[in-house]
From TrEMBL:
Gene3D superfamilies per record: P-loop containing nucleotide triphosphate hydrolases
UniProt superkingdom: Bacteria
SUPFAM superfamilies: P-loop containing nucleoside triphosphate hydrolases
Organism of provenance: Tepidiphilus baoligensis
Protein name: DNA polymerase III subunit delta
Family matches, as InterPro entries: DNA_Rep/Repair_Clamp_Loader (IPR050238), P-loop_NTPase (IPR027417)
Amino acid sequence: MAALMPWLEPFYRRFVAAMRGGQAPQALILGGPAGVGKQRLAEVLGARWLCERKPESGDAPCGQCRACRLLLAGGHPRSWRLVPAVEEGNEGRQITIERIREVQEGLSLAETGRRVVTIMPAEAMNRFTANALLKVLEEPPAEVLFLLVTDVPQALLPTVRSRCQLWWIVPPSREVALLWLQTQKDGDQAVSLLDLAGGAPLAALRWARAGWGEWFERFLGEVGGAAPQAPLVWAAGLESWLKSKETRDSGFDLDAWMDWWLRWLHDLARIAAGAKACYFPRSEARLRALARHASLRAWIALETRVRARAQWVRHPLNLRLYLEEVLTAYAETLGAKR
């Protein structure tokens, strides 16, 4: 079983205590920002649920019973993991209704004994899939634990949410996050990315291991430098960079860049409102200088506009035009000339 991060242990102890009292929830939504360990928590909760050790005999899975050995070997016949399927017409973005039907069939074949159904990200369920799951949750089979892992619980059907307990997992304190990162490979490189990741240690660590620390320095150099004065030139250079082999091989793409860009705009709006930077604290002086170029209303309007455009980030019709529009709007807000 994968080790559990210290900030997740209270959730685990809460679950085991509920098991011990015979009141374990049948359906849990594990919500919270990306990179806080929701998937790891789901894995550990599922392992403890399937373990044959009685709750009063110990908190951790025993590691010796048949269920634990099956999980350690890479699979358990009574554990289902639903993720977006890569198939014709879907491209791995949705959890299709066929997956839920497979689970329903499996549950009917194994009518007794503890079983686990993990769905992640749960917001990837389309309307038909969510409605099929709802029918199962309305009359849940005995001894089945449903774990819905999601960054955005509000994206789930209200009727699905109403049949689940929501456990909201927030990033740990900075002190706890830094202590944990010190114990991880490449953790020292992740420290500089922790604020950008909203304090989520796993996100920062994942970015560091992909080599994104270098991309972060480039990003800061552009957004805080002279690039906004020439948005069309900036867009051309950014397009070439995003299409380069080195960038693509690291997994950095338009989606990742836009995520950082929205965080930069959010910090500009915060500074304009008199608050402190959230994601770019070491660039606060530069943010303050830029924020003076426009009103709070203008910065909020720009962030809202770009956030709407971000919905198309996975399939822009023309990458250059997409970047030009986004960056020109930024330059205009600063009062720069094209």
